[in-house]
Amino acid sequence: MLSYVLDRFKSSIVVLLVVSIITFFVLMIIPGNPAQLILGTDATPEAIAELHAAMGLDRPMYQQYLSWLLNLFKLDMGTSYVYGESVTALIARSIPVTFSISTFAMAIAVFIAFLFGMTSAIKKNSVIDYFSRSIMQLGAAIPSFWIGMVFIVYFGVKLKVLPVSGFVPIERNLAGFIRSIFLPSLVLAIGEVGTLLRIIRSSMLDSLKQDYMDMARVKGLSAGKTYIKYALRGALTAPLTIMGMQFAKLAGGTVVVETIFALPGIGRLVLTAVEHRDIVLLQGLVMFITSTVVFITLIVDILVMFLNPRIKSFQEGE
Amino acid sequence: MKTTKRIFAVLMIALLITSCSAQENTPISKDVKTDLTMGYTTEPEGLDPHRTAAASTFTVTNNIYDTLVGVTPEWTTEPRLAKSWVISDDGMEITFTLRDDVYFHNGRQMKARDVEYSFNRLKDAESPKARDYANITAIEVLGDYEIKFTTGTLDVELLKSFVYPWAAVVPEEEVENLKTKPVGTGAFTLGEWVPQQYLTLKRNDNYYGDDVKLETVKMVLIPDATGMMAGFQVGDLDIIPLTGDQVTMVEGNENYKIISEPMNAVQIMSLNTNNEYLSSEKVRQAMAMAINKDEVIEASMFGYGAKIGSHLPPTSPDYYDTNNIIEYNPERAKELLKEAGYENGFEIDMSLPKNYQLHVDAGQVIADQLGRIGIDVNIQLIEWGTWLSEVYGAKNFDSTVVGHTGRLDSYAFLSRYKSTSNDYISLTTGEVDELLEDALHELDEDKRKEIYKEIQVILANKLPAIYLQTPHTMLALQKNVEGMEIFPIDFYDFKEVYFTK
Lengths: 318, 501
What we know:
The complex is a heterodimer of chains A (318) and B (501). With 318 residues, chain A is mostly helical. In chain A, 78% of the residues lie in helices and 0% in strands.
């Protein structure tokens, strides 16, 4: 079992290395000289050449890559052109924002999805089942920018019960913090709940048909206990994987929601880097986001292995 | 179920907190407010005025740093760090007398050698604006408060080079960190700049000028227009930039007011006169006649733009109305195409910079209008980086729609049309070369105006580009905000702003 974890860990490292190569070279070959973009149409060719050299762009590409990679190990991702600050510090400052809203959003989504997903599987074709299926459709169909705007206008402008934008750090004011992340989290949750609900419902339905459910019932266990202890446990693998993917997606920054609610998260930082052609910042961000995804996937894989006896024994049998 | 219960409890608490503290945002009004909050959409590219070309930087830094000469909203120059100036009879030298009561934010007095240092820094190789100041060949400190600039060739608009926000005076000992820790002489100092969130300015109590009424200015970064409007409507924001589609939400509401001025800029459809079809003057005129500029303005600016016929904005003192030279007339356009030998039309490409919605919207309308006289326009959306290298640099394009922002002097606006300028839309046939040369050397202002008039008329006929509109800058203000103005250069000035209650 340990060897499985180690294997997954090693392959994660390889993935990250490959990603680092792609990230670096793709950003290097996109059209437009970064120095020209920064200096604009007024600059002399000499000024552009000078800045080009000052940014280290005149060295051979492999050299640039190697020094970038070496610094990456020291967590030094260079200095952002726009902010004149270290990329690591900028990312570190954005993490709490994105992490808060994605965690809160997942909590909301998971709660609703499990509640309705399980009930609708147990009471298939009931009113609740139809209601759940409507949630699935709606969640998938409603664009987050639109629902975000509706929330802002309704809760912020009309009712004036929630702030319309901005972020309050948790250490400054807990109530303010929750108020500032509530709407964006809700919007994100609406986007994710449908997929999750569908997976839970179908896994649950599948699990309910298994022989061990009849066993449990024959043993005389109460209905609630059979559902939670047997059916749910057997039905958890697929939802867990999906939840991991959803969380990884949200934690990598949610450009649309962060933009609408003016939250200083990872997604906004990506957008600023793109708008201002801050290549150094962009490289750092892409690396950070892929690392997050790889890390979360790794954790989920290990969790799934612990939960699912079949995978565990298969690996041990090897 | 325990965990679900717990999550549910957290949610309930969250809702409780939200409803309890609903009144938290209401400002407590003392006598008169002195803290202004303004929304902005684009992050500055650092706060060092000599090391960036980004307009988003200058809108802010103009309040932190000062220039020798200032400008009024009516385009006239006024003293700022310089009390007065004398231009030599031949126009080649300008001598400034500086104020003797100016201190940098670090406490040191500003003297002529700081001005010398700053302009040398502005002229050095790392400066994006170096080319604009290359004509200044000597800077001579004549005393603590006196400094002389000498030019290589005569430039009658020289004084205006000292107005732009990048011509700021900075203290040498602080230049290493100006990007994040700006130190100037301006009416405000930087409080803090929190990336992605806000930037605060604090009143400089040692400021040499008149009393500044605001104590702090907080500029909040709100990238989305809906969020911006919502913040304005609930009163979190005192001033916001306004887009055309939002005007109806503010207009007619007695709690708000709008200020609006034409930008110092022109939106044009640039044509590559090396293209087989576009090299024909008749074809270009036909295209100009086929384009309904009112429709273009409606689609791209919701009507908040001024129609133009040549390459100067209506606010410029040298502006001459050329709108009636070629008017919208699709029937005549078809005849002209026929005369040019393209009765059956032709096909051209149009490269549009996709980061600029204004130009993309205008381009789409134009493509449709040209289609009606038989010209097939293939729209290509390209990145701004590609636009700079391919269209502007390599001149590898048929047509494009783009904006050119202006300077205070018309020469800077129009000099690209010189046949030798090697610009992407220069008038290669050379009709304006001599006139431009004359304008640069004509010391008499009225005569200069005549020359610029002539140039505008030639451009309106020859059409190296089709001149579309000057879009408006619009700001929405809460009704208790006074003193905010729109300047011919893209910056804000909070010195004169105050609240009435």
